[in-house]
Amino acid sequence: MAMFKKSETTDMNAATQDTTSPASLTFKIGGMTCASCVSRVEKAIQKVPGVEAVSVNLATEKANVQVPSNVDAVAVIAAISNAVDKAGYEIVASPILSGSLSSDNLSPSAQTLDVEGMTCASCVTRVEKALMKVPGVTDVSVNLATNKALIKSDAAIDAQAMIAALGKAGYDAHISTAQATQATTEANEVSITLPSWWRVALSALLSLPLIIPMLGMPFGLDWMLPGWVQFVLATPIQFFLGARFYRSGWKAARALSGNMDLLVAIGTSAAYGLSTYLLFSQHGHAAHLYFESSAVIITLVLLGQWLEARAKRQAVEAIRALESLRATVATIRRDGKEWQVPVAAVRVGDIVVIRPGERVPVDGRIIEGYSHIDESLLTGESLPVSKSIGDAVTGGAVNADGVLIAEVTAVGAETMLSQIIRMVEDAQAVKPPIQRLVDKVSAVFVPSVLLISVITFLAWGLIAGDWQQALLNAVAVQVIACPCALGLATPTSIMAGTGIAAQYGILIKDAEALEIAHGVKTIAFDKTGTLTIGKPIVVAIESISASEKEILQLASAAQQYSDHPLAKAVIAAASERDISPDAVNNAKAIPGKGVEAETKTGTIYLGNRRLMRELGLSLDVLDNAAAAHERAGRTVSWLARRRADEMTLIGLLAFGDTIKPSAIDAIARLTAMGITPVMLTGDNPGSAQSIATAVGIKDFRAEVLPADKANVIATLKEKGGKVAMVGDGINDAPALAAADVGIAMSSGTDVAMHTAGITLMRSDPAAVADAIDISKKTYRKIWQNLGWAFAYNIIGIPLAALGYLNPIIAGAAMAFSSVSVVSNALLLRRWKPQSVQHHAKNSGEKS
Question: Catalytic one among 526, 728, 732, 764?
């Protein structure tokens, strides 16, 4: 039957895809502090044999590595860990595997450690290096975001040996438990009892006595502290609170690379060292000391990093909000009794009970009950959705008013919520094309700054003869340089944009789709299920000789195994009239034309005009009736039968569909944006024109076969400008892939959603305009941030070299440059889709 043939074909294609498509490994990298770090990590990983592509995101501190699906996971992860370690950085968490690469490919012995004290991508590298030196360890993956290290080994290794190795590297670690938060609390009470800002506060407290005398100098007030007091105050700031800069800078230097911490360490050490020399050379009582410069610079940098970390946490709030939707327990029904069990213990096929007010624990299908479900945080739909027997429920949604009994269809990583979170994380981990320019600049940024600093020092010393001023200007050059702003400009905007979009049901698969979408000039819409409801009904039956009952009986027999919307309409019409379809053999779909099936009365054909012409049939008898239906915007399917060698036209069925309420407004908004909408459909020209005119589309293509949709997209692309395709069915998949960016409705098939770059969780064409809008706003933020980051460094470094900037002012500017970039990106969190606002307004008016 057609249904089984289709399944077999899909499975075969899926299997083929699995063997050819690359797998993905996601690592948490520790120790990265700027764009230069990103460039070094990427270069190091790219050199690993088997790596096809690598993308490192500074904001999320993650590296996404593409490898062949048949690769030895253990060997590749170990090689990547070694490469990152040699580059001076550390992997701080277990790798996340996706694609056909399975964690089953990993060695059987694996342990996870919680690592404390990591602050950047460089730390990740150091942790990885330390663990890789432990005998027996074959692979280490460190995740900076979760502060976890996944260690793979050939055999069981004592965890204490690995903890000791990390201790020598300067990090505290303990065995990760199921209750990670509780374990961290018990293992490291100090980090929990002390607030995250304690270093900043202590540094500011010690720096304050050093900076206050400078405020009195313009008024002729001499409040300067004795040199030894300044030394006592500045020393703990330099070597205790600022120790992180030395550790990170040393690791970068040892790896023959540079980062922001190295610049800060060198600059503040120069100011501190000069002051110490002047103090202990017996000239301290007469010479001006610069302890306040080194102390205040470190304080300001610590403040900037604390503010930056706080802002970055806000940037990923969207993912946290989604993760908070996960239920922890579920009520399952077994042997007539109800039990509360952890969600992890629920299996596919279990029966779950969902009471009013409870969160749906896993994905399922309702087998008993009726209720309304609040899916607002999943789809962006503000109103609860009614659910009854046969409807699907999604884990994370909230049951409003009725008891529901559902059969579990997906658990764990296979649930819709997990897939949404994974898609958002993947989008935030991948770099957009614009980041390539930043990477090229960042690769030479720190060496260039160090060179400019040396030139500044020598020029001021040799030409002006003032070596103290020369040193201060050189320090100002090193301190004001901010590779962090360059590295954070793009990823923070991507994180904020994709995060807020996900909260409103717009899932962006990758950053490239986001970047391309902003420049789209043409959007092609599939008609059925996209612009229309997609649930047509039989509105008329025209017959030549057979009765209406016979026509429905034959049509339903041919369509009984199909999932096509027209097939469902035929089955529904037959069911309403208590007509049972005949048994059939060899039922199969004829792509773009219709279906055929063998019955006891002959071979039945149900399809469009093209199919009838290929069968050699004359349609003159019913042509006028068909034309009238088509002019009314209805879809016509012709019914024919072959008996022996005789082909006979029996009649036709006319189907009507309803335009989605938001379709007209969606097309109007896109047109106002300067985007040309085009409608593609396999329907007849009359039906296509009727729908196109109703929604406001001038350009439409009728009777388009699935393969031809991709050709139409190619033709539209040849005219110039980026082309997007919006669809929801398997037959839209080639066109979605052919377009510059594909947009799939979640009401459609998995094939369509996997092919598309953007998935709309609401089957609402107005969300297409929202997706373009957030893309434009995110892209604008990227350029604003990059413009500020480049301008800041281009203007600030020369001013410092020319002596116009005091090192303290330079330090303050550097500290707040990255904060301003992240804060600007966070403004995207204020965005609200126009379709949701319009929907809420209408709902309020109705109420």
Answer: 526
